[in-house]
Amino acid sequence: MKLNQNGNESNYEECTASASASTANLGPGYDIFGLGLDVLEDIVTVKIKKRAVKSKNNLKIIIKGDEAESIPKKPEANTSGLVAKKMIAEYNLYNYNFLIEIEKNIPAGYGMGSSAASAVATAVSIDSLFEFNLDQIKLMEYSAEGELASAGVKHYDNISGAHFGNFVIVKTYPKLDFINIKSPKELILVVCVPTINVPKKKTEISRAVLPKKIPLQNIVYNMSNACSLVAGFYKGDVQMICDSINDCIIEPYRKKMIPGYDIIKNACLQEGAMAFTISGAGPSTIAFMNTKKTALHISKVMREEHEKLGIGCKTFLTKPSSGSRILSLK
Ligand code: HSE
Questions:
Q1: pLDDT of residue 4
Q2: CATH code, 188-318
Q3: DSSP string, 222-280
Q4: 157 lines ligand 1 (CB under 6 A)
């Protein structure tokens, strides 16, 4: 669709896209591994209308949905706003009014890739509306702008999980690249979101607690697990994947921010979860297994353990997702 090709400037043209929740790191792969989750998705509609005069004040954001309350609406503090602002600046789109409507369904600030989903759906929508036909790397670069709102830095693991779906390896050096691997069909996950307050810019805070220097043997430990995790996805071997979800670098620091982490982890592993780790920057946790029956049981165990601790929680059973989608373009 070309912009204003029929000369009608009074109507908005619009694109609606969805992108799913995601989990990042999967234990040993801090900022490297992403996995799309088909449990919840954010839906973003970008509306554009040509204007007579160029203006830098051309972007408005409306947020709807269960999670709307917790999201900043100012474009410079909003995930979608940051993505749109970057694309507007780079393509000199100041002669358009942008209205972005976000249906926010993924809890924000809990480690389920909420900001990534909105960012990806925004980048994909703008790309489609203007027929930029951006390559995947460029799309990811724009989407990563959104992570500045919550993490203070760009990281690509959640956005790549939300965009490509399934399992993604993010290669950042010497240049950005993504390797997308299908998940074994038996893989099933339970995400547990504790009902605790999270600070604004939670990801930035939970990155700040991490050590700046890491002993070499810890790097070897995580790298060996990261390599076997990748091998597990290539072989479609859930056991190998789960045996590789071990992390001695990040988990010891971040688990202190998650009430009852060790108790809940031990209970889940004893009750049949094949692996358990922090989802992204937390405080959500995620358990891995290969049958729905076990997943239902683990979900119950998670809720019971939280109840014993006097903390509420929500649990979600999920399979890996299949990536972002354009829902409509008109
Ligand atoms: N890799 C990022 C982090 C994911 O752990 O900070 C944030 O969801």
A1: 47
A2: 3.30.70.890
A3: HHHHHHHHHHHHHHT-HHHHHHT---SSSHHHHGGGSTTHHHHHHHHHHTT-SEEEE-T
A4: yes
